Amino acid sequence: MTKRNKKLKPSGNPKTKFITLGIIAAVIIGVVSFGIMSPDSFIVGNSLDSHLSLDPENGSPILGSPSAPVTIVEFGDYQCPFCQKWNIQTKPAIVKNFIETGKANLIFVDLAIIGPDSIKAHAGSYCADEQGLYWKYHDYVYANQGHENDGWANSQNLKLLVSGIDGMDTDSFAQCLDSGKYEQRVKDNKKIATNAGARSTPSFVIVGPSGDAIPISGAQPYSVFKKVIEDMLT
User: Fold this and answer.
1) What is the pTM of this model?
2) b/e burial code for range 164-173 (CB count within 10 A of at least 16 → b)
3) CA dihedral for 78, 83, 89, 93, sign (positive or negative)
4) What CATH class does 19-233 carry?
5) Which of 87, 101, 148, 189 is the Cys-Cys partner for 110 at CB 3.0 to 4.6 Å?
6) SS3 readout for 183-209
7) pLDDT digit string (tens) for 65-82?
8) DSSP single-letter state for residue 219
9) Model pLDDT for residues 115-155, shown as the tens digit of each residue
10) How many C-beta atoms lie closer than 10 Å to residue 31's C-beta?
11) Domain locations in the chain as residue ranges
């Protein structure tokens, strides 16, 4: 792995501060199939060079401690099957070994690019957040994902889907979703993601305790994230 020689200011609360990131050309390229990648052949970019600002403030609530030394920024789409695969196969081990132990936290930034229903699905996450259920919604939607653009994520079906989430006030959710109040937020987050270099889903930027940042492309296995995070913590 190329030595990381560009530093950023450590961020005590990555949800409320800008993360100054650099971008190297085409650093996040393509969706990489989990099944054909070995732990030794994953795509991990160099430290990010030329600077821009990535502001994840309008993304998800932080999963984990805001003061964790490592921040994982994920750019994803609820209709993306590779995002679902990562959420089901990789994220639980990251949560157990790094997020619950206070070593890392996670911020999800909307990159709603697959179709018009993606906008509604992502807006619904913030309607769920009004009830303190963002991450329950996040995981439940991925667990019940249909095929891309087949209608499973349209407004009507989302209202039915969330009835399976414990504690969800479905009437309040429906009113919020119909209002369209969070759709611009989703579109703004897409701009944030593309400005940060994300062109496919899922894409990630891992920000270390010294501010160094490493991009990862695709639904990579736990071993990939483990190596990057542990390298940052040593």
Assistant:
1) 0.80
2) ebeebeeeeb
3) negative
4) alpha beta
5) 189
6) HHHHHHHHHHHHHCCCCCCCEEEEECC
7) 999 999 999 999 999 999
8) S
9) 999 999 999 999 999 999 999 999 999 999 999 999 999 99
10) 17
11) 19-233
